[in-house]
Amino acid sequence: MPQNVTFDLPFPLRTSPHLEHARAANLSWVREHRLVDGPDATDWYGSWDMAGLAALGYPHARDAGALTLCADVMAFFFLFDDQFDGPLGRRPDEVARTCQTFIDAVHEPRSTRGGNRCLRAFRELWERSLDGTGAGWRARAAHEWEYYFATYAHEAINRCRGLPADMESFLEVRRGMSGTGVPVSLGERAAGIDVPPAAFHSPQLRIMRTITVDVTLMCNDVYSLEKEAARGDMDNFVLVVAHENALSRADAVERTRRAVGERTARFRQLADEVPQMGTALGLTAAEQDTVRIYVEVMAAWMGGYHEWETRTLRYLTADDVVPASKPGYLEALL
């Protein structure tokens, strides 16, 4: 049922002209790091279309290299996440130890060498991401990556509990685990913008950033509902809505659709307030333009990610390729 659900996101779709370059480069990168190795894993990975996600989600990427980095980060997210859809994902203490090695790599990328192929690939990604960025972006992105890795242990705790958490607790884990703060920061980097702090931390843009994170994870949780429910995953927005409100899954999906609509309407309302906010802050014309692009980056990520979800085979064919009775990956990377 969820695969037929549509969200009317009011954001224009664009596709980066660097798609084909990113597709070839991304496949080369995952093979080089042996994140996909055998023919079955390569075919399964190819059906996800990570470069397509990057091209739709990051149309503002300033060049082919910037888009390729986005595609590689997307590849890491999904391949890493799948590693916890198996025995490891039910051992919170081991998950915490595993993810700590990645957190260490975030904060000390040059002093933590060795490790498994997934860790080596992440370290290379992180170093590429830092190239040419300012101190503010680096600090924010480091925190977002730490948050992302740290929440996997709490997902494992929730999975072992066997019941969805309350919405407040769920969102604390899901907003981190979804990693969607990182993609928004990645969008800033790809577009080559540096938003003035006074504007970045305005109520309007902070709320809009949270909406961007929430809309992305809410749509994702609808499309991945059947896959995750079959595996006993509890950190899914639809499952939490159904549990808290004693709703059927169909009704919970519909309530999720309405919640997405409310958030996107709020996003547009706040976007209309941004120019006046910039004027009040005394932003220059160039700074106002940077803020405008930042708003477009967030909107493009929501719209592009949703469009990709309706096209990818990652969710449509998961039951056939990686049935719930087996780990959710074809090759162990950790």
Automatic annotation (TrEMBL):
User: Which keywords, in A-to-Z order, does the entry hold?
Assistant: Lyase, Magnesium, Metal-binding
Pfam family of this protein, just one?
A: Terpene_syn_C_2
> In the record, what terms sit under GO molecular function?
metal ion binding; terpene synthase activity
Q: What class of enzyme is it?
A: lyase
This entry's Enzyme Commission designation comes to 4.2.3.-
List required co-factors. Mg(2+)
PANTHER family given for it? BETA-PINACENE SYNTHASE-RELATED (PTHR35201:SF4), TERPENE SYNTHASE (PTHR35201)
Family according to the record: Belongs to the terpene synthase family.
In Swiss-Prot or TrEMBL terms, this protein is called Terpene synthase
Q: Which organism is it from?
A: Catellatospora methionotrophica
